[in-house]
Amino acid sequence: MSQGAPFEIGIFTFGELTRDADGKPIDAATRMRDILEWARVADQAGLDVFGVGEHHREDFAVSVPPVVLAAAAAQTRNIKLTSTVTVLSSADPVRVFEDFSTVDLISGGRAEITAGRGAYLESFPLFGQSLERYDEYFEEKLDLLLKIRDENPVTWSGNTRAPLDEAGVWPRPVQEQLPIWAAVGGTPASAVRAGRLGLPLYLAILGAPERFGPLAQLYRRATHEAGREPGRIGVTSHFYAEETSQGARNSFYPHYSSYIGQNMPRVGFLDRESFEAWASPRGALLAGSPAEIVDKILWEHEILGHTRFLAQVGLGGLSQAQTLRSVELLATEVLPQVRAALGQ
């Protein structure tokens, strides 16, 4: 890895509205204030990336990532601002580009888009989209979004929206080219598509990290076969840190079990034994001391060769103080140790 491209670490959230530390439901306004404070602390502490993801459900506070990122842009100075993710299949690529170009202007060139098909399907009926055309929507809309990024005016036609004929799309971003990442949940075809298009790739590590190694290899092979430069890989994982391993796991377990029960009904109640297995040195969950988290990031780096790690924070109604301390440890202890170990 070149010295000009250091390993990046950041945080992200979907703005879950679970119960707080006192067992009271978190309202959307409170959660939004929390999120903006996470962004400010992450920026001040020296993290590289802050992201918010899109959902259209009553138990999430964020449905419009660029609005939240614009608010974060006004309160931060250096941190990159990304969606994690934008559900492109049910969105208008013209509006998506305009929104994130505006965030880029407000932030002075710090905006990014992460385009995905969406793990939840509530946006499709909400915006009048047919689930039967799930893949077609994403293929066409990603094609249009990339064309808008690269050309202006733009001419395009397809089956999922009205054609464009020498249409100007404004405003244009501060950056010469607005970064667009592809989010992949574990589908080989999605990894190949991202590689073929030369897009940097996010892998959401929610299972055994080793099983994502072949996806990373497949992605790089597709990039090479398309004659493109090797693409960047980012990793996203659930995260919580305290000064000691046992303290972190004791604090986090009841919150995380509640989060899993609410958001992963196929898993259901997460018992303590399963939680400990997930948080073990070869598990997908990053919950423990900074030293443990450094070791796991470096181990995953050996498997995946990724150059960015995003930690999903604030899960399961953790207190604001706990979440902020966890973010600070990620910035002040984990980030410098990872870079040092990688010779940066």
TrEMBL record:
InterPro entries: Bact_Lucif_Oxidored, Luciferase-like_dom, Luciferase-like_sf. Transmembrane segments: none annotated. Keywords: Monooxygenase, Oxidoreductase. It comes from the Bacteria. It holds the Pfam family Bac_luciferase. Residues 9-303 form the Luciferase-like domain. The keyword Oxidoreductase applies. This is LLM family oxidoreductase. It comes from Glutamicibacter mysorens.
